[in-house]
Specification:
Elements: H1 3-14, H2 18-37, E1 42-44, E2 48-55, E3 58-62, E4 67-71, E5 74-81, H3 83-86
Antiparallel strand pairs: 1-2, 2-5, 3-4
Length: 89
């Protein structure tokens, strides 16, 4: 499902026009990205938690150049679904 399809479905279910639904979806995504970028978690009861995970530095390989390189420590975004959501599958 694409963002456009999500906007269309929200518009259909709520009766709100597509432009307003698009603004809400985009604001939702920006809020999630900004909050997790600051290192804070976003918890949506009945859906899941958006958070960041820390990855430690590690050794990697550049196969084409046959070299070892250090992959620096970094954070990655992570979504953990709630139990009800996981049990749907």
């Amino acid at each position: 499902m694409t963002k456009a399809e999500i906007v269309a479905e929200i518009s259909k279910q709520t009766g709100v026009d597509r432009e307003k639904a698009l603004k809400v979806v985009e604001a939702f995504m920006v809020t999630i990205k900004d909050t997790t970028a600051k290192g804070e978690d976003v918890f949506l009861r009945g859906f899941g938690t958006f958070t960041t995970k820390s990855r430690a530095a590690k050794m990697g390989r550049l196969i084409k150049e046959n070299k070892s390189v250090v992959v620096p420590a970094h954070n990655i975004p992570f979504f953990k679904p709630c139990e009800d959501y996981k049990n749907m599958f």
